[in-house]
Amino acid sequence: MPSLDFIYNIIALILPFEVFQFGFMQQALLGLILLAPMTAAMGVQVVNFRMAFFADAISHSAFAGVALGIIFAISPHLSMPLFGVIVGLGIMLTHRRSKLSNDTVIGVFFSAAIAFGLAVVSRNQGIARNMQQFLYGDILTINELDIWILFGLFLALLIFQILSYNSMIYIGLNQTLAKTHKVQVAYYQYSFAILLSLVVIFSVWAVGVLLVTAMLIVPAATARNLSRSAGAMLWWALLVSLSSSLLGLWISAQEWANTATGATIILVAFGWFLLSLLYNRLQLIRNSAGSGATG
Amino acid sequence: MPLDKSLDHPDILNFSRVTVILSGTTILRDIAARVPRGSWTAVVGPNGAGKTTLLLALLGQLPYQGHIPTFPQNGSSLAIGYVPQRLDFDRNLPLTVLEFMSIGKQRTPIFFGIRKQFKEQAAELLKAVHAENLLRKQLGDLSGGEFQRVLLALALGQNPELLVLDEVAAGVDVSGARVFCELLDELRQERQFTQLSVEHDLSTVSHHATHVICLNQQVIAEGAPEDTLSTETLTKLFGLHMGLVNQNALSGRQGACDGPCCRNCQQKEAGNNA
What we know:
The structure holds two protein chains of two kinds.
Chain A lengths: L4 H10 L8 H26 L3 H20 L4 H22 L4 H22 L4 H9 L7 H30 L1 H6 L4 H23 L4 H15 L3 H24 L7 H34 L1
Chain B lengths: L1 H7 L2 E12 L2 E12 L3 E5 L6 H8 L6 E3 L12 E4 L13 H6 L13 H13 L15 H13 L5 E5 L7 H18 L2 E5 L3 H7 L2 E6 L1 E6 L1 H4 L2 H8 L4 H8 L9 H14 L1
Parallel strand pairs in B: 3-7, 3-8, 5-6, 6-7
Antiparallel strand pairs in B: 1-2, 1-4, 8-9
Helix pairs in contact in B: 4-5, 7-10, 9-10
């Protein structure tokens, strides 16, 4: 595996803060720089498709994924994404084939995945200790292999977004209309389910099961408030996600803060969201004042 | 040559023994009907008659038994533009009309901007439906009537040989609906497409349509509006006395509006009289 040292050197150079001179912080930062744009971009579509609950189900399947890995003595870094993708595809397949509503299908898979995880953990008391990391996440323990996997996923996602962004917006708007314009809805839905499952699982490492959905939703929701077009929405989501991640990581490492990184990132993003609400409010006031003056 | 054969065919498409069964319920039974080339074919019938289902079968959105042979002019596949009844969509999605009209055409993602060629195309199509001022507006801010126009412009962008409309007048006020119908008449003559639409307003049908399919799970009647919209058929179709509607609708059928449909009728009448 080629060394990532040159990237770490660059990080140390451009961010001359004391905290970023440590190896694990550089790794965490690089992990976040890769992860944040992915959750931002996927989040835009998660919000458009109203799939927040889907993301929740996948993140909770991480629990069962780890348990499976331990039973079959496979690395959780392999069993988690694998199981996540299986659950994601299972939900999509069932949703497309059955008459049940989307949230019902997700709810069923969600609970089944959790029940399975709990069943395994209750049998093997020793595993429970490892589970805390998956509940709260720990970007600071990310290793070099993880970074390389993230690189690969980043590349796959970049290609997917460039090829599919327009069609995904179309499908999010109205499926029937998209179909009459020859958009292959099923193909995009399955590809999206697979990629989203992977992104969610890898985000579990960073922010933990409980906060993954926030990584997807908060930047996208903020972007919706701030943008006037679907194109701008992606850029806003990227800006919010990246800035929150970097600022969150930096704050969490400060002595006065000393907080969990994942939680800090989400809190910074939430700050962005509050600002976007304020912006919306101001615009509303300005618009009504403007129409009042002219009308 | 298939090309000549297609052009010779008086119809643009036929429904041949089309049956649609959805989860055990027969929605359409043995539908046989024509859509004459260049016509405004209206599908009328009560709620639940399967009108929208017939359109969706044609669009390939529903499984059906039977055949729907098409006879396109270029001999390959029929270009269909579709204007849905009501588009349920997220009104808070920040999407401009320009973006909406470009996402189906532009290959490069719209977050890199929209190419000049597609901007011009969208502006041109909006101009054709008299809605050029909507280009920069957000989709969620449009009124019902404005949104219908944008959907129509989008469908026209497919360069359709057949334009399929599903109760476009629903949710638009009466005068708006009339203006929309006149606009369609104008466009149909200008662009030479065949129009197949589900209509709920019988006066619109008797006024504008040239061919009518009366549908209630099966075809009750088919033909020219004068012949199909008889008291007898309408009673059979809607199950109540429709004579009044029928007579009102048909009286003064020709020359009743300022649209090109009636201008033509008036000219024809003037020509006949001379």
